[in-house]
């Protein structure tokens, strides 16, 4: 039996949509096809996030399974992202050359150390050698995976132009060391948990980063990290009081970070590190925040209404959902 029909809500960069006339026997493949049609995102580039906190839905294996088997329920909100296209041949070559890439990691780290100049305040980032200093292009977003390490992946990209999460573990370790070394500054009240619990938590690959982590990494790398907050159409400048000469930009939509970059008009690698005095770049970031807010490209995790899909209790915002999950062990939520 198929049971009664139900609907799902979609949030994507193309806007918000409602998928109607679904039932428990609808397959993942059918859902993919309808989402692709509505959002105009090719199926291979679909990244579907479900639940709360949002987690990726496996849409690459056993796509003939039913929605009932995935735990997706009526009224739930799915967040739809577009993954960058990736050449299958290149992917195969990279798999064959995995050993070579591991050996190259040491060389990459050395190149990063050349970008970082030690001083009395820590590791201060400089403009990459050979930078043209031409910042007259258009500031653009580079999409990174929604894998709970998007903050660290974004920071790695703006520092060395690579999209991968190989530096995430190192950054998490740096943060844990800094927090453990200063329990007075990083107290239970600041962290929301004990210092030792936080240090163990942040080093887990499924833990999200936020303001505390951005501030620590800004200090560690000696660079201003400007977080473009779409929901409030403002830019939060981490490290502003340190008078760093350089800055990078991250875009934050309420649950996800992406790095911002500028294409080089004369070719070469995109620009991701900018002199603080380049006000034109900052003004572009401000305008980007305003435009993204006006088109509602954000998720308000503090005020949106949720319900627990396991006990049907209604909740408001991330704080109540987290408390409910701690008290009951329930972790499947849908937006109302």
UniProtKB/TrEMBL annotation:
Gene3D superfamilies linked: 3.90.70.80, Phosphatidylinositol 3-kinase Catalytic Subunit, Chain A, domain 1 (3.10.20.90)
Enzyme superclass (EC): hydrolase
Coiled-coil residue windows: 86-121
InterPro entries documented for this protein: OTU1_Ubl (IPR048857), OTU_dom (IPR003323), Papain-like_cys_pep_sf (IPR038765), Ubiquitin-like_domsf (IPR029071), Znf-C2H2_OTU1-like_C (IPR057766)
Family matches, as CDD domains: OTU_OTU1, Ubl_OTU1
Domain OTU: 139-263
Main location: cytoplasm
Any GO CC annotation of this UniProt entry: nucleus
Cellular compartment(s): Cytoplasm
One GO MF term attached to the UniProt entry: cysteine-type deubiquitinase activity
Enzymatic reactions: Thiol-dependent hydrolysis of ester, thioester, amide, peptide and isopeptide bonds formed by the C-terminal Gly of ubiquitin (a 76-residue protein attached to proteins as an intracellular targeting signal)
Keywords noted in UniProt: Coiled coil, Cytoplasm, Hydrolase, Metal-binding, Protease, Thiol protease, Ubl conjugation pathway, Zinc, Zinc-finger
Secretion signal, residue range per the UniProt entry: none
A biological-process GO annotation: ERAD pathway
Protein name as catalogued: Ubiquitin thioesterase OTU
């Amino acid at each position: 039996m198929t049971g009664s029909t139900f609907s799902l809500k979609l949030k994507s960069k193309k806007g918000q949509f409602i998928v109607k006339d679904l039932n428990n026997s609808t397959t993942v493949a059918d859902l993919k096809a309808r989402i692709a049609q509505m959002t105009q995102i090719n199926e291979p580039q679909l990244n579907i996030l479900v639940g709360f906190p949002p987690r990726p839905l496996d849409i690459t294996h056993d796509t003939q399974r039913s929605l009932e088997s995935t735990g997706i329920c009526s009224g739930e909100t799915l967040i739809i992202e577009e993954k960058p296209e990736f050449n299958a041949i290149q992917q195969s070559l990279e798999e064959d050359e995995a050993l070579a890439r591991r050996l190259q990691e040491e060389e990459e780290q050395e190149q990063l150390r050349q970008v970082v100049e030690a001083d009395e305040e820590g590791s201060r980032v400089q403009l990459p050698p050979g930078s043209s200093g031409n910042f007259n292009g258009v500031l653009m977003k580079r999409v990174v995976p929604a894998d709970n390490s998007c903050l660290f992946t974004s920071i790695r990209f703006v520092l060395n132009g690579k999209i991968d999460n190989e530096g995430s573990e190192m950054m998490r370790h740096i943060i844990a060391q800094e927090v453990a070394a200063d329990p007075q500054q990083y107290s239970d009240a600041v962290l929301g948990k004990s210092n030792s619990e936080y240090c163990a938590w942040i080093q887990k690959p499924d833990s999200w980063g936020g303001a505390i982590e951005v501030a620590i990494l800004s200090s560690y790398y000696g660079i201003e990290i400007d977080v473009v907050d779409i929901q409030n159409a403002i830019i939060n400048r981490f490290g502003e009081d340190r008078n760093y000469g350089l800055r990078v930009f991250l875009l934050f939509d309420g649950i996800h970070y992406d790095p911002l970059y500028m294409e080089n008009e004369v070719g070469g690698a995109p620009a991701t590190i900018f002199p603080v005095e380049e006000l034109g770049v900052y003004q572009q970031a401000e305008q980007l925040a305003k435009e993204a807010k006006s088109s509602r490209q954000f998720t308000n995790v503090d005020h949106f209404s949720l319900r627990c899909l396991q006990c049907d209790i209604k909740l408001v915002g991330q704080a109540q959902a987290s408390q409910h999950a701690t008290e009951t062990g329930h972790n499947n939520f849908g937006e109302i």
